[in-house]
Design brief:
Number of helices: 7
Number of strands: 2
Distance between the termini: 92 Å
Helix content: 55-70%
Order of helices and strands: HEHHHEHHH
Structural class: mainly alpha
Length: about 240
């Protein structure tokens, strides 16, 4: 009788262990699929981020050389700086959720300053009666929003503009605007350094498991803080743009 009891107990225990192993395996597979899903977009996002920084620098140089801003310049600068803001905040949030960054540190200086710059160009567009349709605003609730909803692709639809009108001169630079654009270009040149360091890193495609994408976010933050705190002793580039 006792032997039969132990036999039943052993069978029941084995059954529970199998069920537990199946649950653990299924959870592992789900986590793996979720990581693959996020990793698939990671390379494209990081490349988009780097492209926006490089494109900004080219446009700032064009504007400096020509001493005017075209409609196309404004379209690109608003879009690019929105991308920088959105993607740095998206991956900062993701890294914190994965416990890959220290939660007691602030990694949002790049995003906040990119937002300030995008808003500056948006105001400039408004002053010149340059119509931009309202965009889908980037969600601000970084702690409560799920990753899938956190980032909305940046879209800027130009109101009834013909393609040849985009090269029309919108603003001629005066000394005040030259100075402000000089500060913006200088900050972007700091971001270029972080972008170059990432591009020259020997790596395969980025996945969530490696540190290359995290290093880029951290390096961008370092460059932003070097520009703000160390070089100019300010908290946000907005102090230069409000002069």
């Amino acid at each position: 009788m006792l032997k039969q009891y132990y036999k039943q107990l052993l069978i029941f225990s084995a059954f529970l262990i199998i069920i537990l192993l199946l649950i653990i395996y299924n959870q592992y597979q789900e986590n793996k699929k979720y990581e693959e899903y996020l990793s698939n977009g990671l390379n494209d996002d990081i490349q988009t981020l780097n492209d926006a920084i490089v494109d900004n620098q080219n446009i700032y140089q064009q504007v400096s050389d020509s001493e005017h801003i075209t409609k196309q310049h404004l379209i690109s600068l608003i879009k690019n700086n929105s991308i920088i803001k959105n993607l740095t905040q998206k991956y900062e949030y993701l890294a914190l959720r994965l416990n890959r960054l220290e939660s007691n540190k602030d990694y949002n200086e790049t995003g906040k300053n990119a937002q300030t710059i995008s808003s500056f160009f948006r105001v400039l567009a408004g002053k010149e009666n340059f119509c931009l349709e309202p965009n889908n605003h980037f969600k601000q609730s970084r702690k409560s929003e799920p990753i899938a909803d956190y980032f909305t692709e940046v879209r800027r639809d130009i109101c009834n503009l013909e393609s040849d009108e985009k090269n029309d001169v919108l603003v001629n630079l005066d000394s005040d605007l030259k100075e402000k654009l000089g500060h913006i270009q200088e900050l972007n040149s700091f971001w270029i350094e972080a972008s170059k360091a990432y591009e020259t890193t020997e790596r395969a495609d980025d996945t969530l498991s490696n540190d290359h994408w995290i290093n880029l976010i951290v390096d961008l933050e370092k460059e932003t803080k070097d520009y703000l705190y160390n070089k100019h002793k300010i908290s946000n580039i907005e102090l230069f743009l409000k002069k």
